[in-house]
Amino acid sequence: MIAILAICIGPVQDPDFWWHIRIGQWMVDQGRLPSTDIFTYTVPSHVWTDHEYLTEMAMWLVYHAAGTVGIGIAFGLITFGAFLILYRQVRRQPFLIAGLGLGLGAVAGYPIWGPRAQMITFALTCLELYWLHAYLSGRSRALTYFPLVMALWANLHGGWVIGFAWLGIALVAELIGWAWQPSNPAHKAHVRFLAIITAASAVAVLATPHGFGVYLYPFQTVGSQAQERLIVEWFSPDFHQSYLHAFELMVFAVVAGFALRRPSLFEFMLVAVALALALQSVRNVALFVAAATPVMIGSYSDYWKQLSTERGWKRELPPRRLFAVVTVIALLVITAASAVRVVSLIGPDHQRSLDESSYPVGAADWLASHPDVGARMYNQYGWGGYLADRFYPQPNRRVFIFGEAALMGDDLLNKYQDVQTLRPDWEQVLDSYQVDYVVYNRGEALANVLATQPQWKLVYEDSVAVIYVRQ
User: Fold this and answer.
1) Which of 153, 251, 356, 374 is packed most tightly, with the most Cβ within 10 A?
2) Pairing mode, if any, of strands 437-441 and 465-470?
3) Are residues 290 and 373 in the same domain?
4) DSSP-assigned beta bridge partners for residue 468
5) Same structural domain for residues 309 and 361?
6) Treating both helix axes as pointing N-terminal to C-terminal, what angle do 17-30 and 384-391 enclose, rounded to 10 degrees?
């Protein structure tokens, strides 16, 4: 668990972070939520349903008080809290299998962990599934409080909709069980209780400033084909990437575990749906970790217990004093190594280095020193949040696009992609929006083509970004 904590805490690398803290600051200063887009000149009339306003205000307050170090620690603790919930769910299983399973889950989700609002959905998913497993096994009725969790969830992150997916899986599993064993009163009672909790949760979600509008946002995101084509985290996992090999291993481990122990219908459906989501979009790997880790640990633990009973294996611990000394030494080494790793990752120098290699820091400095250059910008999508944070509310530094894709809308996303991929209408798109300067990645196709156009002049270049100004 100490090592998992070190994995959960990391530097800021999410490009959306910058506009999250800027809009959080805006809401704290203004004392209200944004009703329309404030960062672009392209879609200023689009209605902004800010589904994670509480998270953004909290992010700004933490950032204002403790910078990116505080942000890294805060979201690391949220993610680690989710793993504590997972641990509590499997704490009665053999410690070695539980530890290996939790460790595999932490490494499998490593590409996802970090200071991002999605970690709140991961943590609340772990809590919901913990309560669902406990209720279906007859150990607890804590699920009664879930509507209150949903009311909070809907104000923290748009991922609240996944909470209904898990409830729906439990309902379907119990309905099938009721149909298969109509004489068993437990299934009927479970269906009634889960239906009541689902209905109450659907009402609780309305406890947001957006009212019924909160229902529309998740479907605007999920139903957007433009987002699936453009945004990397919505792509399917590419298993040629080494950082996804642990996720691949976990998938095989879960399937092999099912061969060792037949899962319950709820467990099977839960893992199947979570795996389908993860294979559809890499950002959903976190949901797979939340759903599959306890099931995987349970499968191997039950098989291990059965094997131990059949073969009469007995575990003999070393002498108590020796065991204590070895444990203390091991914990000190692990803690020291974890602390060194965390300090090196979230330190200001490392964060500054990451920012300078990931964002147009030098280009933004040049624009700041030349305030009269340009009126309408075309920018790289992932840089929109950083540039908005740097320059809002300067009118000639409003961005073309930034990372709130649902707010941008598919029409703008498609036009952005037309320019990015140099489709036949790319120049018409720039002309229609009266773009007179471009901030883009050095060496990418668009930047290379602009270098050949006589009406565009290169005014800034570094290893990360270029700025072209229309003549």
Assistant:
1) 153
2) antiparallel
3) no
4) 438, 458
5) no
6) 40
Per-residue confidence (pLDDT) for residue 250, from 0 to 100: 97
What SS3 state is found at 13? coil
Phi and psi at 456, nearest 5°, equal: -120, 135
Contact (CB, 8 A) for 72 and 11: yes
Question: Which residues, listed in sequence order, are joined to residue 439 by a DSSP beta bridge?
Answer: 379, 467
Q: Is the peptide bond before 237 cis (omega within 30 degrees of 0)?
A: no
Q: d(Cα 235, Cα 281) in Å, to the nearest integer?
A: 5
Rounded-to-integer distance, Cα 391 and Cα 38, Å: 12
Indicate the residue among 315, 337, 364 that finishes a domain: 315
Residue 340 included in any domain: no
Q: Is residue 18 domain-resident? A: no
> Of the residues 286, 315, 344, which one is the last residue of a structural domain?
315
Structure tokens at 336: 């020291």
- Tens of pLDDT, residue by residue over 325-336, are 999 999 999 999
DSSP 173-225: HHHHHHHH-TT-HHHHHHHHHHHHHHHHHHHHTT-STTGGGGGHHHHHHHT-H
41 domain residue, yes or no: no
Buried b (16+ CB within 10 A) or exposed e, 402-437: bbbbbbbbbebbebbbbbbeeeeebeebbeebebbb
Q: Which helix (H) or strand (E) holds 459?
A: strand 456-461
344-399 pLDDT, tens digit each = 999 999 999 999 999 999 999 999 999 999 999 999 999 999 999 999 999 999 99
Looking at the fold, whether 258 and 377 belong to one and the same domain comes out as no
Each residue's pLDDT tens digit, 406-445:
899 999 999 999 999 999 999 999 999 999 999 999 999 9
Based on the fold, state whether residues 189 and 86 are members of the same structural domain: yes
Write the DSSP symbol of residue 36: B
**Do 204 and 288 share a domain, yes or no?**
yes
Neighbours of 162 (CB within 10 A): 24
User: What range defines the domain where residue 92 resides?
Assistant: 49-315
* 291 in a structural domain: yes
Q: Which range has the worst mean pLDDT, 44-53, 213-222, 282-291?
A: 213-222
pLDDT digit string (tens) for 158-208? Answer: 899 999 999 999 999 999 999 999 888 999 999 999 999 999 999 999 999
Residues 100 and 213 in one domain: yes
- In the block, tokens 């209605």 appear at 47
- What is the mean pLDDT of the segment spanning 41-53? 94
For residues 142 and 94, membership in a common domain is answered with yes
What is the DSSP-derived secondary structure letter of residue 47? B
The two three-digit tokens of residue 440, written as one number: 């883009």
Q: Which residue has the tokens 């309408």?
A: 376
Dig out the tokens for 242 from the structure. 């080494």
Alpha-carbon distance of 9 to 195, in angstroms, equals: 38
